[in-house]
Design a protein that fits this description.
Blueprint: E1 2-10, E2 13-18, E3 21-27, H1 31-40, E4 45-50, H2 51-54, H3 62-72, E5 75-79, H4 85-94, E6 98-101, H5 103-107, H6 110-119, E7 124-131, E8 134-137, E9 142-146, H7 147-157, E10 161-166, H8 178-187, E11 192-195, H9 201-210, E12 214-217, H10 219-223, H11 228-235
Parallel strand pairs: 1-4, 1-12, 4-5, 5-6, 6-7, 7-10, 10-11, 11-12
Antiparallel strand pairs: 1-2, 2-3, 7-8, 8-9
Helix pairs in contact: 1-3, 4-6, 9-11
Length: about 240
């Protein structure tokens, strides 16, 4: 199971949010500083989110994201502000390992198929952000149908993997909910990476035992509730 430290970028800084709220942002230095910090601690891949992009400025932080990709040379999965084929194509051509398609995948599902055909399924990850069993889009403000049905549809369209974010527990550092993850794993053959609420080594082990392909560590990692070394050990 792969452990992905999060490098979320807002206003040129690496930040962590609570429940996706911009006003909750805490800054932790530059994206590259934090990327190197986690790689030095043993990480082999990064989860990068362009929060300015998610909030509507698609080209914000582009140079910083390219810097992280080029300077580290590790596998980067990137989300946030990818609104079109052109956005996704530009990032993949920059060297991003895979793009995460969230709202755009729900609004225009054929984008998943087209990009999978063009670049290969392994470079296309569909985002399944869910709250109470429903996919939520547009900054988690709008419900868009059953999360399991969307996961199956993304698989049929050719996505190579899924990012499941449990919005109800995201950023709270209060632990995970295993039931929605288990239900998702029963309904798809795709590798699933889980974000939201991962707080302890016990959470990581529980997800490993369920059979998830990876976990994203955000707020708990930056606040010191779990160290990357502890997470990597639990993931083995």
């Amino acid at each position: 199971m792969i452990v992905f430290p999060a490098v979320d970028i807002l206003g040129g800084q690496c930040v962590q949010l609570v429940q996706g709220k911009r006003e909750s942002a805490r800054a932790f230095g530059t994206p590259l500083e934090n990327a190197r910090r986690w790689l030095d601690a043993g990480a082999e891949a990064l989860h990068v989110v362009n929060l300015d992009g998610a909030f509507g400025s698609a080209q914000a932080n582009a140079e910083m994201i390219r810097e992280v990709v080029e300077e580290t040379g590790v596998f980067v999965q990137l989300g946030g502000g990818i609104r079109s084929r052109e956005d996704a194509r530009a990032w993949l051509e920059t060297g991003v390992g895979r793009v995460i398609l969230g709202t755009v995948a729900v609004r225009e599902p054929e984008i998943v198929r087209d990009l999978s055909l063009e670049f290969g399924p392994e470079q296309v990850m569909a985002g399944v952000d869910a709250r109470g069993g429903a996919v939520v889009i547009e900054g988690w403000q709008e419900e868009a149908g059953d999360y399991l049905a969307w996961a199956q549809r993304f698989e049929m369209l050719g996505a190579g993997s899924l990012l499941f974010t449990n919005v109800a527990v995201e950023g709270l550092c209060q632990g995970i909910e295993t039931e929605p993850v288990a239900r998702l794993l029963e309904r798809t053959h795709l590798p699933v990476v889980v974000a939201g609420g991962v707080t302890s080594a016990e959470d990581v082990r529980a997800l490993r035992d369920l059979g998830v392909a990876g976990v994203v560590l955000g707020s708990a990692l930056y606040s010191g509730k779990i160290t990357l070394e502890e997470a990597l050990e639990a993931a083995r």
